[in-house]
Write a structure and sequence with these properties.
This protein has 4 helices and no strands. By secondary structure, it is mainly alpha-helical. Helix 1 packs across helix 4. The longest helix has 14 residues. The radius of gyration is 16 Å and the shape is globular. The relative contact order is 0.15. The mean pLDDT is 90.
Amino acid sequence: MSRAFVNEDAVHEPEPRYGLPSRESPRFDAAAARALLEGAHIGNTRSAETATGCDWGDPALAPHVEDLIREAEGLGDERMARLGRRYLRAARR
């Protein structure tokens, strides 16, 4: 392989960990919605999708995302609120 395609000095960040309850827990959907928004916030949606088993824009999580948007707006976290609104647009497709 050409050295042009090898970055030996690259720093590889560990995959983020998401504190998720078991899938059988009634809190799982809310935690999964939070994890998806947090993953998007750090630019690593794929890790959150893998951890939760849910896709970005999964309509089943929309009510929890709406709660998270209200929470973010109350805290003045416009970035998280904007990500939530983007999630809801994807859920409506």
